[in-house]
Amino acid sequence: MSRSRLAGTLAVAALLFAGCSDPSTAGSGAAAGTLVVATASEPDTLNPVLGYGSDGASLIFDGLVARDGQNALVPALAEQLPLVDGTTVTAKLRTGVSFRDGSPLTAQDVVFTYQQVLDPKVDSTLRSDLDMIDRVEASDASTVVFHLKYAYAPFLQRLTLGIVPAKALTGQDLNKAAFNQKPIGTGPYKVTSWTPGDRLVLTANDTYWGGKPANSGVVVAFVPDDNVRAQRARAGEFDAVELAPKLAAGFSSGVVKVPTADYRGVMLPMKNPVTGDVAIRRALNGAVDRAAIVTGVLGGSGEPAYGPVPATSEYAEPSAHRRHPTPRRSWTPPDGQQAATGSAPRTAGARASP
């Protein structure tokens, strides 16, 4: 047990106030029909190769696959879910797809995108996620073949990576390219402006292959302080806002809870003579009241965690998610002393079972 995971998973809450925002008060310059969203974090880049929207969360780019409302994988730039045959994965591209500059999507664009992620000269945060790839090739203009070093069951989940145009980036230093701030994608929205520390303004791509977007635009406001986001949401500045569970509880309606695989933990130094002792680590692991952490820190929006994979996940290994009930030890006071009222103190043996 190299590390001790001691806290519950987090359920992020998003508040939806459809139609109540006032773009002028949001300071976004947004037009009618524009969705104004507030989030805590701001990307460092808008280039998928460097890590932007790697899980399919980008409105500017599309991957070969995407996720639907139930979080299931569905075809996107691929006309159907890619075919997996051992260590070979084949994707046939959808026809009639173009980048915002009008250039057609080809298999070479897909090959270029993945090759750049794998190139050690490119500062991509995703390289280790694609370590199973041996090579990528285009068997024809609309077919991409991934050759893997070894069979990797969740590989299709890696294909949400947004595809960039090879023509616009070939020969450039992707670490410093202007594309990183003014990207060209195939997604439902295109970048109008990006003001670092303030907002990202997107306009609908009316020629999007998936159909014209419902909103004429999207403004993403970057507001790192949780309390400030909540206050501005109450003032009607946003249509949607990301909030922690405790702050979301202050709103009586319009709350949508989104379960995540996020977790909190306490990591103990392995080389310390005390915290590195296996018996002590096991005792601490068994003694922590995880339910109290979920209630006190996460406002009840979470579940006790026994590792990075949630116990409710279909991929969880049951033996790794053992419950650690806190034992109670009865105590009899010496003769002549009165027993204290209340429950017995909680204890954990130093040699608790692993």
Features:
354 residues, alpha+beta, Dipeptide-binding Protein, domain 1, 7-stranded mixed β-sheet, 4-stranded antiparallel β-sheet, 7 helices, 14% helix, 21% strand, globular, disordered N terminus, disordered C terminus
Sheet/helix structural class: alpha+beta
Number of helices: 7
**Helix fraction?**
10-25%
- Topology-level CATH name of one domain: Dipeptide-binding Protein, domain 1
Give the C-level CATH assignment of one domain: Alpha Beta
Task: Write down the Rg.
Answer: 25 Å
Beta-strand residue fraction: 15-25%
CATH architecture of one domain: Alpha-Beta Complex
The CATH homologous superfamily of one domain? Dipeptide-binding Protein, Domain 1
N-C termini distance: 8 Å
Compute the average pLDDT.
Answer: 82
- N-to-C series of helices and strands: EHEEEEEHEEHEEEHEHEHH
What is the makeup of the main sheet? 7 strands, mixed
Q: How many beta-strand runs?
A: 13
Main sheet strand line-up: 9-10-11-2-12-1-13
Which segments are poorly predicted (pLDDT under 50) over 5 or more consecutive residues?
1-29, 336-354
Explain how this protein is built.
- The chain has 354 residues and is of the alpha+beta class.
- Among the domains are: 104 residues, no CATH class; 134 residues, Dipeptide-binding Protein, domain 1, CATH 3.90.76.
- The strands form three sheets. It has a seven-stranded mixed sheet.
- A hairpin with a 3-residue loop joins strand 9 and strand 10.
- The protein is globular and about 60 Å long.
- It starts with 8 loop residues before the first strand and ends in a 57-residue tail after the last helix.
- The N terminus and C terminus are likely disordered.
